[in-house]
Design a protein that fits this description.
alpha/beta, Rossmann fold, 274 residues, 31% helix, disordered N terminus
């Protein structure tokens, strides 16, 4: 039996065109009756907007920071997937790590059917190999912009910023490439999530400065308490707004993805995080 195609609750919006006003069916994970203000983008991750003090600003850049296995890639994919299905906003995944096909396979565990979104022109992916990254810089991101324009993308996810900068020969070249990438992001005018490797200890000693280039920084924790690990999230930075400053637990829900619990607290000491 052929897989059932997903139907977005609103029609995708092409650049330069005004959205067609229509009523959207209520979503299970969205509060009914709450409208998103003009100029803002819902994250599509239950509980996150509450922690951030509201939805994301359109065309903003947010870094999702954390160690291996903390959920960064899932975070990015859920942002793209729910953006398309719940809000009709096409998205693009730009990967410097795993091939996109491997990512899609893993995301099936959460019910994220990106192949169906591709068929509906609501999603596109680009994977760069190491030797192709310099071409990206030389062309000024031409292929990415062409892909964004072709589907009228409103969302962009980059996995990962760390891998991107490591593909350059010197720290100076990496820094220049980082600055160029953020300049391109402003030109592309997509609401963007970027993943990056990092822990609180790296932040305390000063990272490469990329956290200062972004509008927001979200930190994912995956520390150990006694014989088990748990997951927590905190908003480190969200430019121009008052956000939550507490640590909150989150979990992976089969068939749904990440669920954040803003009303709950973390009682464990994070000093053991490695």
């Amino acid at each position: 039996m052929a897989p059932q195609k997903l139907k977005p609750t609103v029609q995708p919006i092409k650049r330069g065109k005004k959205p067609i006003q229509q009523e959207a069916e209520p979503q299970a994970d969205q509060p009914v009756g709450i409208e998103v203000p003009e100029g803002y983008t819902p994250s599509g991750i239950p509980g996150l907007d509450e922690l951030m003090g509201g939805p994301l600003e359109e065309a903003s850049t947010t870094i999702i920071l954390g160690g291996p296995g903390c959920g960064k890639t899932t975070f990015l994919c859920q942002f793209l997937y729910n953006g398309a299905v719940e809000h009709g906003e096409p998205g693009v995944l730009l990967s410097f790590e795993e091939p996109s096909q491997i990512i899609f396979k893993h995301m099936q565990n959460f019910g994220f059917d990106f192949l169906s979104l591709e068929e509906q022109n609501l999603f596109a992916s680009i994977s760069y190999r190491p030797h192709e990254v310099k071409k990206l810089v030389e062309e000024g991101g031409g292929l990415i912009w062409d892909t964004i324009s072709s589907i009228g993308a409103k969302r962009l996810a980059i996995d990962s910023l760390t891998s991107y900068t490591m593909l350059f020969e010197s720290p100076y070249q990496a820094r220049e490439a980082q600055l160029l990438l953020f300049e391109l992001l402003h030109k592309w005018k997509c609401t963007t999530f970027l993943s990056a490797e990092g822990t609180p200890s790296l932040l305390n000693h000063g990272m490469s400065g990329m956290e200062y280039l972004a509008d927001g920084v979200i930190l994912l924790h995956h520390p150990r308490h006694q014989s088990t690990r748990f997951r927590a999230i905190e908003i480190l930075k969200m430019r121009g707004r008052k956000h939550s400053e507490k640590l909150c637990p989150f979990d992976f829900i089969p068939g749904k993805g990440i669920q954040i619990y803003p009303e709950e607290n973390i009682f464990y000491d994070l000093q053991q995080e490695v």
